[in-house]
Amino acid sequence: MNDQEAFAIAVEEAKLSYNEGGVPVRNFHPGAKMHSLTLQIGAALVSKDGKLIGRGHNMRVQLGSPIHHGETSALYNSGRLPASAYVGSTMYTTLSPCDMCTGACLLYGVSRVVIGENNTYLGGEAYLKQRGVEVVNMKSQECQDLMEKFIKEKPETW
């Protein structure tokens, strides 16, 4: 799976979530039930050998949870894997990761983080880089438009 394919999954998650009425992100892992809960940040986790191992979206509002962000949902939805499965992986996310999600990426040995945009929110990119993680900003106008629309329509949720 290449960057464009994996990033498209993260964007799809964000759109699904937004269309469901939240901040777009949808969660999935093989063999699990799909959850239709929303918050507009999508994420996909791809192993170092190019296999999708988790995808998710922000569900803070839907679950009343402060920790169900897009990236943490993707990790959660990857299921119970050995630590080695995460080492060298790439996290694709539609928005720059917050401090918590930055820490989760570091904890699990994610070596690359590909973000959609960081204009609407600048997260822990500098810390990721400082810790040796490659950070790629896609500068996606589509992601920025999604977030700007969400922030405008639902400022109380953001």
TrEMBL record:
Cofactor dependency: Zn(2+)
InterPro entries attached to this UniProt entry: CMP_dCMP_dom (IPR002125), Cytidine_deaminase-like (IPR016193)
Location (main, coarse): cytoplasm
Catalysed reaction, written as an equation: cytosine + H2O + H(+) = uracil + NH4(+)
Pathway: Pyrimidine metabolism; UMP biosynthesis via salvage pathway; uracil from cytosine: step 1/1
The CMP/dCMP-type deaminase domain, residue ranges: 1-135
Recorded superkingdom: Eukaryota
Subcellular compartments: Cytoplasm; Nucleus
GO molecular function, one term: metal ion binding
EC number of the protein: 3.5.4.1
GO biological process terms held by the UniProt record: cytidine metabolic process; cytosine metabolic process; pyrimidine-containing compound salvage
Record's keyword terms, sorted: Cytoplasm, Hydrolase, Metal-binding, Nucleus, Zinc
This protein's GO CC annotations: cytoplasm; nucleus
A Pfam family matched in the record: dCMP_cyt_deam_1
EC primary class: hydrolase
Subunit structure: Homodimer.
Function of the protein: Catalyzes the hydrolytic deamination of cytosine to uracil or 5-methylcytosine to thymine. Is involved in the pyrimidine salvage pathway, which allows the cell to utilize cytosine for pyrimidine nucleotide synthesis.
Family of this protein: Belongs to the cytidine and deoxycytidylate deaminase family.
Full protein name: Cytosine deaminase
Organism: Coleophoma crateriformis
